[in-house]
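User: I'm new to structure prediction. If I give you an amino acid sequence, what do you actually give back? Let's try with this one:
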Amino acid sequence: MRCLCSLLLSLCLALSGCTTGPGATRPDQVATAPTAKEIDYLKEVQPILGRRCVACHSGSAAPCQIDLGSFAGLERGGSPQTVLDRRRQAEIEPARLMVDAQTAEGWRQKGFVPIIGSGAETGPEEATLVQLLSRRPQGSAAAGEGPPAADGSACAFGTGEMETFLAAHPDHRMPPGFPPVTAEEHRIIVDWLAAGAKGPDPEEMDGLTAIPARDLSSVGDWEDFLNRQDPKHVMTSRYIYEHIFATHTTFATGTGAFYELVRSRTAPGEPVVPVPTVLPYDDPGGLFFYRFRRIYAATAATGRVVFNLGGEQLKRVHDLFIRPDWLMPPHRVGYAPRFAANPFSTFEQIPPESRYRFLLDNALPILQSCFEGPAASAAATLDVLDDQFWVMFLDPEYDLSVRLPGFLIDNEGLLGPQRTVRAVEGTAPPDSNRQLRRDTAHFARKRSQLYDIFYRYQGRGYEKIWRGSRAEDAPLLTVFRHAATASVHKGGLGDLPKTMWVLDYPLLERICATMVTGYSPYGPAERRMAARVRMDGLRQEAETQFLDFLPQEQRRNSLQYWYGGMDLQELDASPSSLPARIEFATDDAKREFVEYLVHHHFLVETGIDFDDNYLEDGEQYPEPLPQYRNIDEFLLGLRAAAAPGPSYFADGEDRQDSLAYIRINGAERGDAVVSLVLHRWHDDVTVLRQERRLNPSRNRVGFFAGFIGSSPNHFYDVDVDELPAFLEVLRSYQASPGADERLAKYRVDGGEERFWEIYDWFQQRFAESGGGRPGSIDLNSYARPAI
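Assistant: Good question. You get back a string of structure tokens that encode the predicted 3D arrangement of the chain. For your 787 residues, that looks like this:
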């Protein structure tokens, strides 16, 4: 654990009486005399926690489930179990704030240990708090520690366990890896605890949860639509809910408020009482209503996906789902587990075109939910993705699952929930992986055969790629993998990637079902492994659908190249047997294909384009400049440092930053932010091989103005007149103590006294220009290399 929260975790020791005697202190502690002054939680305490704590401790990723983004999280306390822990084998009980328990007593019954409030029976409360919440002496901050959940004893809550742990790991007492909070911040927290640790009063809670006046009309209109009881509205609402329940919804009214869509026992106008099911298609067990509940807790930005329900969205949903005739007479569908888990069975009556166009309308937040959510990191599904790839979509007019919907139902058994196999130490044997991939490969083969028959005399041309129909559409997306996190962006970012995807409706729907709808972060290891293997097969299917547009003679060679020379029979791959319809003018068909789409095919109003990291055919990397004055020149110099050859980015020591934020001081138009994004080269990423297959000599890097992602490995602080020297360090870097020392001049290590000052600067810029995403820059990956 890296944040101030570590102090509060330690408090559980005090509350269970684990002290060295009444009023005792140890030599490494600083005695502080709490006062009886009452501290206002919302005005004084929560801002400190928001600045110094929720960057690690919020949401499902919170170590030891200590969520300090709200008083409800403080009241819940901590657990010996961390939710997003890859090592965990068994299923654990869900423990969602304001869902699975509503009171402190309810959380104690679920095994959570208090981290605030009175509870020690020996010695004055003040002395115990002083002992355990004292500041760590200056200079003891540890830099470059492992991830918060890497050491299971970090969640040692039992009597005596924390005492032993802290004795062995003294730096865990305060935010490990980072400077301690200030003396004034420390005093405020101690005084607040000494005064009874009071949270918001009922009036303040009403203010936190109230829907702003400008959102009331939108909330009312949507809740009215979603809760209509005719079968068309019931099934439409269910489809929408299952695809956006994991997002932060907004109505784009300028209020800054975000909401979660929940199933509630209470009707609109009454306080929300969530139905405590885990998966969105679990049986609600009786009458429920769709409700919007305002999100007021502070969070880290990682995994917080914004879904805009404002503007013309409601009308668009009506036009897509309610106006058309359905394939069958509209009827309600039950929640039998195996049936409800298969969206192709559950929503069979809704025209696939309606479903697909809804997903295409919202392709960016839909895929952000898939690749930035808890499944991506906890289930290790990011491990089966390349560090950079571009995603395109098959046009609904040419998607045969849309034109021939019976094909989906005829194969619904291959499209349903992934089977599981028992994982051993977090992995499955290779034979089991092949078995789990079989259904995906079987469907891909049948789909390929159908397309080969149907389009035998037409082939696959540019027109079969969806071009978008509105300015806000995203017909081309970039996915970046940042080691343990990922980010999804509109457009073609970075240089030409190794692989590209083309998604059709059944692929996009299965990715959603695997990564969001059907994934529980509380599930056992075998279900996480099943999600990883399913995603491995879906990735291969998406890549193969892209290759089907290229010349026939290049498909198999390209696929083998992407998979490190593996035999196609071993991959169970099914490239099309049809000749290419497109007449390519060069041997680099992949580049030619995507450049044509960007320059001539995608709707101009969408703004789809390459960024400055992209090198057109024959274009060379720029030369460095003698000096730099503005952001354009900075980016040019950084791209010069990205040229292939020995450099910091091609070092094979696994110490490079996968994602870093660079602050450039003294620019003409003010200080600037640049994101460094490393694209590690994987010879292949399939689960069919157990070993890592990295090739650092082929690593590439992209530099982007502003922020990419939200979970950096490091900050860099560079004065504009030092940019030439900084770039030279990157370009000429060869692993050695001297090279590390030269780079460390610009790197902001977690233990430096200036760390929080730098973090606050980046956080202010992130809040101003982070793309409207709520939350703080995440520090769970700080000082962790690209592994």
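You can read the tokens as a compact description of the fold. Here is one thing that stands out. The longest helix spans residues 430-454.
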